[in-house]
Amino acid sequence: MSIRACFFVFALILWVSMTSPAIERTIDEQTARRLVEGALPALGESPKWMNVGPWRYYWAPEFYNFSVYRAGGQGVLVIYYISVNPWTGDVWDAMACKRITTPETKKEQDGIWKQSGIPSEARETLSNRSPADCTTYTRTGGTGKESPANR
Amino acid sequence: MLAGEGWEVFGCFGDGGGGTGGDQPTQPKKPPCPANVKNFVNAHIGDATTAADLIGTSPVDILALSGYESGWGGGEFMTAQGSYTGNAFFNLEGEIPTQTSTTPTTLYLSTGWSQPSNKKNPDNQYAIVAGYANYYDAAMSFVNYKGGLFGNVTDPTAFGTIASKNGFGISVSTFVSIANMVANCLP
Question: What's the CATH number where B97 sits?
Answer without folding.
Answer: 1.10.530.10
